[in-house]
Amino acid sequence: MRLFDTMTREVRELAPRDGKTFRFYCCGPTVYGPAHIGNFRTFVLQDVFRRSLELSGQATFHVRNLTDVDDKTIRDSQASGRTLKEFTDHWRDRFHHDCDQLNLLRPHLEPSAVEHIPHQIAMIAELIEKGHAYASADGSVYYRVASFEGYGRLSRLDQRELKEGASGAVADDEYDKDSVSDFALWKARRDEDGDNWWDSPWGQGRPGWHLECSAMCREYLGDSFDLHSGGVDLVFPHHENEIAQSEACTGHVMADHWFHLTHLLVDGGKMSKSLGNFYTLDQLAKAGFSPAELRYVLISAHYRQPLNFVAKDADGNETFPALLGARQALQRLAKFDAALAARSGDPDIPPYEALLTVKEGGSFQSAFESLQNDLNTPEALGRVFTAIKAVKVDALSPDEAASERMGLHRVLAALGLLLPATAGEETAEAPAEIAALAEARRAAKAAKDWPEADRLRNEISALGWEVKDTKEGYELCPKN
Ligand code: AMP
Ligand code: ZN
Predict the structure, then answer these.
(1) Residue 64 sits in a domain of what CATH number?
(2) How far is the CA of 28 from the centre of ligand 2 (A)?
(3) pLDDT score of 162
(4) C-alpha 35 to ligand 1 mean position (Å)
(5) Residues 7, 104: one domain?
(6) Could you identify the atom of ligand 1 that is nearest to the CA of residue 31?
(7) Closest ligand 1 atom, residue 42 Cα
(8) Both 378 and 439 in a single domain?
(9) What is the number of domains present in the chain?
(10) Ligand 1: which residues within 6 Å by Cβ?
(11) Same domain, yes or no, for 231 and 92?
(12) Is residue 423's pLDDT more than 70?
């Protein structure tokens, strides 16, 4: 697989360092509110990336953290009157629920920043020892940016600007793109942080956000790993600072590849609460749209291009034309799949594990290959529809239909698209709430989270429905 690398500004071949497993880290959500559809553009495309690797035969190890201690989580938990843990646990659970709805594979590991404070303290001590950090009079510790020669390589900061700017120090986790400053590794305890402080050799306080990812990457992926990813806003300062921290400690290249995802725009502008264009999965569900329809929209543009989510029509009414278009596209796919299924004589959808062994995708091979070439999701979708037009289902033998169907489902699995039930199937009769629970259970099973799958089965049962597993999928029937 080939992918654009922000560090070299080139599309480069991906290869695991150890020759076996591709090990990568994605900066996870800050759990202080519901993730919005922009955040999910990033998480969904990272998921398509992982699926495309796995379906091309490459084993993966995916680590995605939870940012559950930082300026924002502390500020908003204080305002809500809940403890940091109660507050972030709530938003973590909501995030997981949304991820399941969107058919995201669960990361193999999901470390929490607040559970790794000793690792962060150890890293600060090492940075001070090596001359890359210093304690200030108030008991905070700052990274000395001028001490790290490679600072600015990822974001291509002008070296002159760097030297001039490097005199100041900032305490906030997030700061301006133009202000290159010494940044906080450890923040001395302040009254407004309430009970959220920990003991350290420099006094009571809490870690800075940038350090958290460096410490968790090192713990679970070692000094060097295959790829690091996040939204494009993380290039500077977050990832630049991660490199400075990690490489100054270890003396090794942190990540071989940097994968950044361009932002989602809404109706041509930035998403913000004040503009009233801030959408969550929940809001779209209330407007009658399925998670699969949102996922389809999110993958409809290349990850290096901004994607404009069209929510309003020309008259300014919130009609979600983009999601309506996705609905039609998914229905066309489902109809074609149903025709292939009928021709092959096997209604069951091939499971992910069976698709991992497909080597040749027939009419859908070139669509799959688009994903191998810099994760070109719009080209892949285009090629799927071209193939659908070209394949004459009635002319296929049952074996040919079965084999074309494997090819189709391999590319759909890489895109993570679940097809809607076609009319007449039993699942179509279940209320949306039950269908959503059944979908979440399917995702939990796919992620081998058996306790969660059992819990969802019980929840469905308590609501008067029974979920019956078929060879691949499931059927929903009202309980007698
Ligand atoms: P956060 O929860 O703010 O830490 O962000 C989680 C992920 O979403 C990060 O990788 C961000 O870079 C990414 N992100 C934030 N806003 C957007 C957006 N509008 N479009 C795409 N990705 C975004
Ligand atoms: Zn990070």
Answers:
(1) 3.40.50.620
(2) 7
(3) 56
(4) 8
(5) yes
(6) 2
(7) 22
(8) yes
(9) 2
(10) 27, 29-30, 38-39, 41-42, 67, 230-231, 233-234, 261, 263-264, 271
(11) yes
(12) no
Residue given tokens 């979708």 in the structure block: 381
What does the CA dihedral 373, 324, 447, 33 come to, rounded to 10 degrees? 100
Q: What is the pTM of this model?
A: 0.87
Are residues 224 and 360 located together in one domain of the fold? no
Torsional sign, CA 365, 370, 375, 378: negative
Q: Is the dihedral of CA 372, 375, 381, 383 positive or negative?
A: negative
Residues 163, 184, 139: CA angle, nearest 5 degrees: 120
Cα 300 off chain centre by: 16
Task: Please give the structure tokens belonging to residue 112.
Answer: 């929490």
Task: Give the rounded distance of the alpha carbon of 251 from its chain centre.
Answer: 29
Q: What is the pLDDT of residues 200-259, one digit of tens each?
A: 999 999 999 999 999 999 999 999 999 999 999 999 999 999 999 999 999 999 999 999
The atom of ligand 1 lying closest to the CA of 29 is 2
Distance (Å, rounded) from C-alpha 118 to C-alpha 83?
20
Q: Are 156 and 217 members of one domain?
A: yes
Q: What's the confidence (pLDDT) of residue 170?
A: 78
Q: What is the dihedral of CA 278, 101, 104, 404, to 10 degrees?
A: -120
Q: At which residue do the structure tokens 């074996």 appear?
A: 399
Q: Are 383 and 439 in a shared domain?
A: yes
Q: Which ligand is nearest to the CA of 235?
A: 1
pLDDT for 430-469, tens place per residue?
777 888 888 889 888 888 899 999 999 988 888 878 888 8
Report yes or no: 47 and 55 within 8 Å, Cβ to Cβ: no
Q: Which of 233, 260, 305 for a ligand 1 pocket mutation test, highest count of atoms within 8 Å of Cβ?
A: 233
Contact 372, 380 (CB under 8 A): no
CB atoms within 10 A of CB 251: 9
What range defines the domain where residue 305 resides? 296-478
